[in-house]
Amino acid sequence: MKHLEELENKSIYILREAYKNFDNLCMLWSIGKDSTVMLWLVRKAFFGHCPIPLVHIDTSYKIKEMIAYRDRLAEEWGLTLVVGQNKDALEAGMNPALGRMECCTALKTEGLRRTLADKKYNGVIVGVRSDEEGTRAKERYFSPRDKNNDWDFRDQPPELWDQFKTKFEPGTHVRIHPLLDWTEINIWEYIKKESIPVIPLYFDQGTGQRYRSLGCAPCTGAIESTAGNVDEIIEELRNTKVAERSGRAQDADRGMEKLRKDGYM
Amino acid sequence: MTNTSVLPSTNDQQHFTVVFVGHVDHGKSTLLGRIYADTNSLPVGQLEKVRAICEQQGKTFEYAFLFDAFLEEQEQGITIDTARTFFSWGNRQYIIIDAPGHKEFLKNMISGAARAEAAVLIIDAAEGVAEQSKRHGYLLSLLGIRQIAVVINKMDLVGYDHHVFDAIAAEYSSFLKELNVVPRQFIPASARNGDNVAVRSEAMPWYDGPTVLETLGMFEKLPAGESMPLRFPVQDIYKFDARRIIAGRVAAGMLKVGDSLVFSPSNKTAVVKTIEAFNVPHLPLSAGAGKSTGFTLDEQIFIERGEVASLKESLPEVTDLFRANLFWMGKNPMTPNRRYLLRLATREVEMELAEIHRIIDAGSLDPMVAKEQIDRNDVAEVTIRTKKPLALDRFCDCDITGRFVIVDGYDVWGGGIVTQVLDNEQETFRREARQRDIAWRRGEVQLGERVQRNGHNPGIILFTGESGTGKARLARHLERRLFDSGRQVYLLDGKNLLLGLGSDVTEQDKEEMVRRFGEVAQILLRAGQIVVSTTNTFAQADHRIISTLVYPHQVISVHMSFTKGEVPEKTDLHFLESDDLKKAAKQIVEKMEEMGVLL
Lengths: 265, 599
What we know:
- The structure holds two protein chains of two kinds.
- Chain A has helices at 3-21, 33-45, 64-76, 87-91, 100-119, 184-194, 230-238, 255-261, and strands at 25-28, 54-57, 81-84, 123-125, 142-145, 173-176, 209-210, 223-224.
- By secondary structure, chain A is of the alpha/beta class.
- In chain A, helix 1 crosses helix 2 (33-45) and helix 6 (184-194) runs antiparallel to helix 7 (230-238).
- Chain B is elongated.
- Chain B has helices spanning 28-38, 46-56, 63-75, 105-113, 131-142, 162-178, 212-218, 427-439, 447-454, 471-484, 494-499, 510-526, 540-550, 581-594; strands at residues 14-22, 83-89, 92-98, 118-124, 148-153, 185-188, 232-238, 245-249, 254-256, 260-264, 268-275, 286-288, 292-297, 308-311, 317-328, 340-344, 347-360, 379-392, 403-408, 411-421, 459-465, 489-493, 530-534, 554-561, 573-576.
- Chain B is of the alpha/beta class.
- In chain B, a hairpin with a 6-residue loop joins strand 7 (232-238) and strand 8 (245-249).
């Protein structure tokens, strides 16, 4: 079995375990390539269906093509979409100019926390990969979060033989990470293998620039690249030594570690 | 921020996971540092950077610093349990798991090694085989890692003497032999000087075997297990559209369209009609080990998560009693008389420790003094009894259906492997039921159709208790009540069996009488009936036999007595002779609803 096939089979197994064991399950869909691959794996796991609601946290600062793409796929694939937004913070005027960390915390972390609490989700599927940055390498496939969405990575029980944490105390929830073993290249290789439609922002449209990672418009920079299709992206990644999230402002100064500890995805 | 993987992982490389274990001072970091440096797997400038820091601090450069710095950069100083790093060599990407050798060792080692395909064990040539080296070897064998290489490091400290190497290799192989582990290779090395790591050592011309890197390359990718007997643990049943799909991952063997499957422990049988898939031009005709898939059957039989599908010729064992080796990592000790959840493949059942045979000191392999409990970080040989039967294999026959984890509270705190399936007093009857079910020639009408027409599932209500407590009265009342509400119900009195079917059975051969009773009951259950059974002649043990013979049909045990007091094990409802008949019957009906007999 080739490596991509191994990854696919394991991810499907994890998704099915999540679906079986959590009565109130959702999946975070950021519209980016990773969570879109995950959505595709859900359709594979459930034979063309998507029985899990998709939560999208809309900061209102997302790149506008992302919203159009989201709504188009939701329609075509018959998805149940739950859009969450921290309206209080937006009404109070929160924006990136007030500080990037502050903005992320209010609009993403707090927006997510509120949506999860409102809907009482006890299982949340998230498309993080362990190669993205240091803290993500500590994640388990099924990782508990307490009432405040806190995560204690120092005292985690072992996870072995594909037996996952599916029991949890009332008031806590479990984050589920089906893509933990995938790398950035694997994601693109799989997009190619399965012909998964991805948002064109990832490709150079003739400007010599493309997005490698997608987030909010003010805080996500395009990278210099002429990769105009999936093959060219794979080729480019084989030769790069620059980190994927280099265009993402919140990663500077160990920001990610703090955000994740506080419940950021 | 550094990218965690220096070289990108791609689909056309083979991926291979190796765990490196060794005593904390035996040179593991040095060996890994040397491997990363010699395979050019470190980020550009890393080597120079660490050399400069050493110079600045007046320290001699060591490869261990290099590896530790590399790790630290990846980990950003976060406390870790098991570190995973990658390097590429040949057309393989190696995922290296570094299990720290100190505190919380068992937990770390198990987290890391449970997913490894091979292991490299490191022993210090100057110190020889340490207690910890033995402990590591024992745990690797317990985790089922069969490819092991032993690096005897720091050969420079013993003057590259091949007698020292031979002595250590002999001592350690005879230890591993007790565990039925044959190491692939013993390699004399000096990680510090690079002897026999990536390049052959000139200092040890007496050694003509492979280097550490060559040995890694000789480890084989584990076969997917497609040639093994089929094992398909049912993960879930999907009915998103017209298809009723049995979903799961093939644990071993090959699933094919047209296969005649037996599901254990329910012993139900059906034929694979289609193998389903999404986004493929044609539906596949087979699915091999490791594949997450799903299939439809030619008949709508009721099966549930936790059953294991196999072929008739190579069935898994079905039991509720087995011997196992287990390791325990829980904060609370594991004790008899306490219920835990056992998970084996997709099956989850309640379990208890029936017996602790010995608790092993994983260093000497000597049993320690008898203990009443299994403490954190203990490894033990035990007998486990589960509340319900489950399908399993010995670990040496099939790893996925031969290993299990134990849940205490909310978390997995233990795990183990099945070493021996034990017979209990039910074994003959279970075997009889299996053979009978698998060979059973079914009629045209399926049970599912009967259930649909009747509006209820079959089930049996067994009354127990002394003579005169009103069992018959309540049973008759219940039969009438169920019948009047449109249920298919039949009162089976044990005494009636003595008249014809059992007229050749003597009073002494009660077990045979019970067996015949159970067989009659199971025919009625196949016919979709609710069976109400009452007899004074059967004792509690007999009821267990009946439950085994009619498995997996629902059995509801109702006990009656004159006074309040102890009730037999597995009693679902208890009434007194003086209790109101109508109320009691109502409670039984509610129990039948709760247990899914009445829909």
